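Holo model, zinc ion. Inputs:
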Amino acid sequence: MSSSLSSVLSSSSSSSHPLAPYGWDEGIAAEFAPYAEQGLVPGRVVRVDRGQCDVVTPDGVVRADTAFVTPHDPMRVICTGDWAAVDPDGSPRYVRTYLPRRTAFVRSTSSQRSEGQILAANVDHAIIAVSLAVELDLGRIERFLALAWESGAHPLVVLTKADLVPDATGRSYLVQDVETVAPGVPVLSVSSLTGEGMDVLAAVVSGGTSVLLGVSGAGKSTLANALLGEDAMEVQATRDADGKGRHTTTTRNLLALPGGGVLIDTPGLRGVGLWDAAAGVGQVFSEIEELAEDCRFHDCAHESEPGCAVRAAIEDDALPERRLDSYRKLLRENQRIVAKTDARLRAELRRDWKLRHAEGRAAMEAKRGGRVR
Ligand code: ZN
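Output:
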C-alpha cells in the first residue's frame, strides 16, 4: 500500500478511507471508534500464523502478536477477515482485540477430537464452485450450502467450466437441477475461457467479502485468478516486523479485488466439514421444513406417520425422495458432531476447573485478559 493512503486517513468519509478497498464501512468505523480513542490502529487480518498475524492497516501490512486474541476457546481465536485493533507502535505490536464478527465460517476438524475451527470472519458471499466437467454431486452442493447459510454469508452457486457443456440448453438443464437443491440461492454458469457469466460474478463479489468453497478440481483457483487479475496473485514480499532487515515471503489469504470487493482464500476453506450447522441444514432444505409444518404430528419423522405432509409431497412428485434422504443424512451428521462437541466441552470445563484450583486466581485473570467479549 502506498504511503499516500495515510494522508487520507483523517477523512470522515468511509469510502475514501484507506481501508475501504478491504471492506471498511461506516458500521465498522462506528464500532471501531472507542478503540481509535484509545490510540489503537484499525486493520483487517489478512493472514494468521502461530502466535502472529498480518494485518493490513492504513500504513500498510504490519505483523502483530496475537497473544491477547488467542483465548482458550478455539471459536474466539482471531482469524482471517477479522477487524483488529492494533497497537500504534512497539515491538512487538499487539492485536488488542477484534470487532464483533458479522459472520463466521467454522469447520469441524479431525473426526477424532471434534473441535470447531474458525476459518474466516466477516464474509458476505460464499461462492460454491461446482465443476460442470464432472457429474453433479447434489448432496455435496447441499453440504456446502448448509455450511454457507450457517456462517451467515449469502451463498451463490457457480457452475464452472461451462465451455465444456457446449449446448446452452444442456447448461440450463444443469442449472435447473442445481436450483432444485438450492432454494433461494442464485445459480450461475461461468466459463473463464469464454468469459461467460464472469461479469455477473465480478459484480456480485464487488459488494463485500467473498470466499470460494468447493472440492479440488472445481475451478476455484481459476476463478480466483480471473477475479484477481494476474498481478495480484504474485506472491508478495513483506518485511519482517523485527526491523532486522530480514525479508520473508508470505502470502495473504485476504486480497482486495481490482474490481472492488475482497476475496478470502485460505487453504482450510477448501475441504470443509459441517460444524453444528443445524440452522444451515434447515435453510438448505427449507421446502422440507415448510412441508413438515403441515404434518399432523409435531415430531413427525416422515416415515409412515399418518397425515405426513412430506411423504404426501414425495408421492405427488412434488419433492424428490433424494432430497429427504439427503436432509436426514446431513441432520444425522450434524447431530454426531454436536454430540462429540458436547463431550469435548464437558472435558474442557473439567480441565478448566482443576486449573483454577491449582493455579488460583492468577490463572483466571490471565484467561480473562486474553478473552474477547
Ligand atoms: Zn411428516
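The two ends are 31 Å apart (CA to CA). Residues 124 and 153 are 5 Å apart (CA to CA).
Archived with the compound record.
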